[in-house]
């Protein structure tokens, strides 16, 4: 018998390491940093129980140019009603849409026929508050819808409809605007167990002209997205988010850029390894800052401009995705898992995913234990396209503060680890676990962002519904 | 902001629900219930720090007939030295072996050349205490070796060698025997974070003759085995166990029966979803109770007898596997996940595995929350061989006490759940989550055994090495 272990198993209280405060990740952004031609707000509709907590968000494009829309949706077989409806809106409009309506507090998932009707009602009501038809002259629905929260409950739809109606052009309660406060309200309406609103902006230049990107997303559990473009097959997530730009991008190129960006950002993060029924990332490009009469950015006609846009979108998506991990349920660590030297990028991505979701690795990270054996066991459990050579594998813990990395396994041989130095690195909030399979530098590096597994995680999820 | 949630995230202590005592699962077994022709013991060698805790086990076959041996090993790419050595011994002896040596406290994994030498040293030393060569006349190594514990540390090999030497025939400290106490000592030498030794026996009849099976195993973390027969490819586990019978079974049929049994038992349990570098299940069949001169049971010559044996072995393996889940690190629940009506058995098995490893499902089980939405999200995230029809899927919570099951989702529509009744069922230590995909009863039912995810799990694994 291991009596010290036994003692630990049966004692009855434990002190939870305080979750580091994360609210400093939310900071004011100058109103001039947001893209032009958008109006936003967040409203308290009453989906959430607590009075005054924002739970319905609206984002409208007011640009006189056509607004392109692209999205990636969950691959889960049980797609929530808003996912199905948004897919249909995008498909029927050939990549155009001018509005997004979102609610938190209820996922409208597994809600049958009523759920579909409710999601359509949100779309139709939001269509009503859009300015007159855009240049595309579309007369069909132009709103995309997202919901997040508990599965299997119906929306309090009349409350949501009233909230949307409060934003009609002639309503005295209209709060739609394009300043920081408006963007912040919208970002707050996304939140469920998040501890801070996730809002960022970025400026970039294409062909000498300046454009802006801004966006928001939310976590903080059931986060292990695997999203694909619409209609590719059954898709997965409860990560939802949206990105708006005032560049003009053609619908097809916007979708291709988003698919590329999502693979390297939202599809490369994990909080708990669980995919949701609602994961959705939407991007709108309204061209409000594009030169008059200039064509939309398109991969076929201006590859260089397209690639600049794709890189900006990808980097921005990675920033937004990292915020979700940073605020993961119960997370006290932000850990980058990098895998290189694998036979293929897909192999590297699968290993990084496996390490990032291992309960044993994640509890060791929480315990600040340099338990590379668990990293290795997770690595070895992934079937690869070519055999792995154990005697070529190295594992290194890399601190985020720029100090010397700590190799713990070199070419399959354990190093004599300086435990004090290991503790120093693992006590940081941010660090990297680097796994080199020794296959050379040809293959693209795969990178996953994950967090630790804490008492807090168990507490939050042990009684989520209550 | 969800203030009640926030409060929960930042308060600093929590009372851990007492882990139910599991020691009653270990009970005396009459010495007459063990198979004939075996000698066993467990010794304190000093691998574990705590004095007197058994950490080396020995199992010898003393039968005058040849002893068949079969095994399933981990598919992990980083196979521990004892796994590689045992594979070689079985292969070079064409399925014959007469002894098993096991140590706990150190996994002898990722230990390079020294690790291989140490594993071979354990084999050679145990060979020395075997009785004179069996009828097979083998002069090669006849011992299989297993190790479990921390990865990346070398064995204190001289201590282990001394322990084995203490069991030489002429040694005054020899404790090898075939009574309950001897089997219990061996079972205790398997334990790491286990809270009770896992030892069972069973009697069965073939062709009018009575035989016995007895065996032992251990968990309690890094449990999500995926084991295959030797040399099938890279294999996974830290589940180790062995089963001994006094029936006579040919090596090939013994391996086929074990592979079948392991798929339905040890490869269908999950504590934490992590595969180990050491998982090994060994079966020995020494024929000590077989009629004089009778041929070994073989699938080709007596299919009926083989099928009886395979069924007994499978049921027994399921019993042993369940004990591992029952004693999972921090487990307070024993949950059977049954999936039926899937396109294929493999689809059903994949879904059952996914549900059984979902952190969100497992924390809900710990919280006694009938959160079928998480069950459904896990189900929907598995890619299947044919599309799943959400409106045919049903989920039911089935109590273990024989009272009425509680449907929570019927043909894709949420039921109005009687929360009181749900609490009643979920407060049981044992219950079943039944997922029916509605594809009819043609496909074989897949069944997985899992446990919940508790504060205890985090505590045990947050500082395993320290």
UniProtKB/TrEMBL annotation, chains A, B:
The active site is at residue 238. It comes from the Eukaryota. The record marks 237-238 as: Cleavage. It is found in: Mitochondrion matrix. GO terms for cellular component: mitochondrial matrix. GO terms for molecular function: L-glutamate N-acetyltransferase activity; L-glutamate N-acetyltransferase activity, acting on acetyl-L-ornithine as donor. The alpha and beta chains are autoproteolytically processed from a single precursor protein within the mitochondrion. Substrate binds at residues 192, 218, 238, 329, 461, 466. The keyword Lyase does not apply. GO terms for biological process: L-arginine biosynthetic process; ornithine biosynthetic process. The record marks 148-149 as: Involved in the stabilization of negative charge on the oxyanion by the formation of the oxyanion hole. Pathway: Amino-acid biosynthesis; L-arginine biosynthesis; L-ornithine and N-acetyl-L-glutamate from L-glutamate and N(2)-acetyl-L-ornithine (cyclic): step 1/1; Amino-acid biosynthesis; L-arginine biosynthesis; N(2)-acetyl-L-ornithine from L-glutamate: step 1/4. Gene3D superfamilies: arginine biosynthesis bifunctional protein suprefamily, ArgJ beta chain, C-terminal domain, L-amino peptidase D-ALA esterase/amidase. The keyword Mitochondrion applies. Keywords: Acyltransferase, Amino-acid biosynthesis, Arginine biosynthesis, Autocatalytic cleavage, Mitochondrion, Multifunctional enzyme, Transferase. It catalyses: L-glutamate + acetyl-CoA = N-acetyl-L-glutamate + CoA + H(+); N(2)-acetyl-L-ornithine + L-glutamate = N-acetyl-L-glutamate + L-ornithine. Its EC number is 2.3.1.35, 2.3.1.1. NCBIfam families: ArgJ, PRK05388.1. Belongs to the ArgJ family. Catalyzes two activities which are involved in the cyclic version of arginine biosynthesis: the synthesis of acetylglutamate from glutamate and acetyl-CoA, and of ornithine by transacetylation between acetylornithine and glutamate. HAMAP family: ArgJ. Heterodimer of an alpha and a beta chain. This is Arginine biosynthesis bifunctional protein ArgJ, mitochondrial. It comes from Dendrothele bispora (strain CBS 962.96).
